[in-house]
Records
---
Amino acid sequence: MNKTEMGKILYIMQEQYRAENITERTINAWWPIFQSYEYKIVELAVMLMANERKFTSFPAPASLVEYISIIEGKADPSALWELAYRAMGKCTTFTLETFNELPEQIRMFFGSLNQLREYGLADIDELKFTKLDFMKELPTIETRIMARKETAKLLDASKGQLDEQHQAQLNRLIGG
């Protein structure tokens, strides 16, 4: 992420948290922390934080890094469960868009917005078993996510090779 994108992120956060004006000094302080992250990931983390309304004032950089870790699948299971638990608590106000902003592990566990709502309306005693199931299934879910990403990489690589082969055949046919 470049400095301009960092500024955009901070301005989004300023609007969400009604913070004081963002200055060049603020951007320069935050940018070294986030320069290695992709803009879209950081933007998604900010939106996730805003949707949860967990913070009443402008959050610290470490809080944003924690949300980025969750999105990137590097969060510890208890942090993911906490996020899932809060989502269940707000299930009646969730839209499909809000559900789709949740980390992939949580979306895969619940399967759909309707399923999340069902869990959210369950008795508190049932949620103990839901947490156990979540923790038990999380390694499998993360393995499936990694396998899907690896498959997508392989497909992209093979598509590139096929495109090169087709271009070579086309060049031979047209004499180029």
---
Amino acid sequence: MDSNEKAGWVAYQEANGALCGDEWIDNHFTVIEYCKKVLKKEPGNYRALYTIIVNMLGDKRYNDAVPYIKKIGEVAPDSHQMLLYSGDVAYGNGDLEEAKKLWNQAVEQYPDHWAAYCDRADRLKKLGFVIFSGAGSRGEG
């Protein structure tokens, strides 16, 4: 079950009911369990870690996602994602100030990563914050 091979991808799609990305709805136990099997064979598989994290967060299983968030920090140490997802956990657990601190820290520590800015902006915009200033903005930075 190599997730990088076509057969592994097909198994992934079958486990996921042939739905991908933002179309994952309801609960995500099947796809999470599939990715856990991938991690047993490939402990550093970034795609499996990422999929587990976003699906656990989608299921509001915030504390269950923490070990996988720590692991993605080991697998991708030059990425903002550990901070980003840690902020998501804080927000999910009701600590907005800690969440904002971690999302901002992701940008501060990884200023050359465009995705850090996009991910932070996405989260803050969904919460009703305007974070950009300058021509055409409608609020304070």
---
Amino acid sequence: MKYSILFAGVLLCTGCVSLTNFQSPQALPPGSTSVGGGLGLQFAGIVYPLPEADFLFRYGLANGVDVGGKVALPFLSATVDMKWQFLRGPLAAAFDVGGSYSRVLGLPDISNEANIFGVYPELLVGGERIFGAARMMLAYTHELSTSHGEPLRSYTRWYPQVFVGGSFGDRFRVMPELSVSFGLSGSQNLQPLLGIGVAFTYGSEDMSDDASTDEW
């Protein structure tokens, strides 16, 4: 019984927006690349936490600007983003905006089939090792079928989210994070998430501790 509850919970979130972050205010140096992965556990009000596995990529595009991508499982979700670091020094700050596409699998009596499109404006502030972030996730859902024959709907929901994270290491980095999402429009009120990410960065000659390498 307990395994069927966990399985149903994972399927319900298949196709939902990804709630992990795994990035700091520091932009990668131009020409640098980071690859790696992450694991998150969403505590979304069911008996067991819901797992999320992320495959991550990031590239330094110009001074203070990098771009990234993320594929999340079991959500069938892909995200791309661009970040601009506008404040450097002991206290760094950056603005990031991303977009995502997710597909909800329609399962009888469990979930509606739908496409979900997300937009993620985000502000990140902090030091090299410890930092925080706040973002507003806008998710537009277009239903393709329903599990109980209800009328198809299209609707928009806002999800404010705050993060506290860390980055430890140089070329190889470990990035733990804690976040809380505040669901609106009838969704789950609070969704805590614990995450851990790892990244390997290469491709730049300027990879000292003062360079912007603690990044996803």
